[in-house]
Amino acid sequence: MKIDLLNLKDGKTEYFEKLDAATLDIEGLEFVLKDFLDAHTTAEKRGNKVKISIETNFILIMRCSRCLEDYEESFVTDDSYFVKPGRDEEAEKYLTDEDVYAIFAPIDEIDTVPLIRDSLILSVPMKPLCREDCKGLCPVCGANLNRQSCHHNIGEGGSRWQKMLMDIKGKIEKG
């Protein structure tokens, strides 16, 4: 959605929209947007400054990094941006929050879709987990340990490495 900065009335203006994966240009990433993203945008104009607040609600389908099963997770984001018409001002001695989060817009309108897309992507965890206590896969047979147990002792891998380290240590000590 594009907000016309020149014709924006003083005070608050609210926008509601539903965005799909194609509009957000997130197709082909490591997650899938389930249905639509609901966005509630508030543009608040005071003089020549505009504060844009964007609240989003969406569900992503992601793959657990431990057990490799797909799962759904809900997200809610709330971001604020300060838009100032014109070019970046000279560096100030003391910066306020408004200065740090300011978008300088040399144009008459601002597109909120890239802002929403960035917020969505930044919401995705680096290591998605289907649940905090996910047991993952058996390193020997690959069984999903959340659904079934297997006869392999998970500690086997550690004892195998321990044996190899002892062999190397013995060879070093012999000289």
Protein model, in words:
The chain folds into two domains: 2-123, no CATH class; 135-175. 22% of the residues lie in helices and 37% in strands. It is built from four helices and seven strands, in the order ββαβββαββαα. The strands form two sheets. Strands 2-3-4-5-6 form a five-stranded mixed beta sheet. Strands 1-7 form a two-stranded antiparallel ribbon. The longest helix is centred in the last third of the chain and has 19 residues, at 156-174. 10% of the residues are buried.
Strand content: 35-45%
Q: What is the count of β-strands?
A: 7
End-to-end gap: 73 Å
Order of helices and strands: EEHEEEHEEHH
- What is the approximate shape? elongated
Mean pLDDT: 86
Total domain modules: 2
Supply the helix-strand structural class.
Answer: alpha+beta
Helix content, binned percent = 10-25%
Q: How many H/I helices?
A: 4
Uncertain runs are none
> Main sheet, how many strands, which sense, barrel?
5 strands, mixed
User: Which sequence of strands runs across the widest sheet?
Assistant: 2-3-4-5-6
Radius of gyration, CA atoms, in whole angstroms: 25 Å
Write the layout of secondary structure elements.
Blueprint lengths: L1 E3 L6 E9 L1 H4 L7 E15 L2 E15 L6 E16 L11 H4 L1 E4 L3 E3 L1 H11 L32 H19 L1
Features:
175 residues; alpha+beta; five-stranded mixed sheet; two-stranded antiparallel sheet; 4 helices; 22% helix
Please give a quick description of this structure.
By secondary structure, this protein is of the alpha+beta class. It contains four helices and seven strands, in the order E-E-H-E-E-E-H-E-E-H-H.
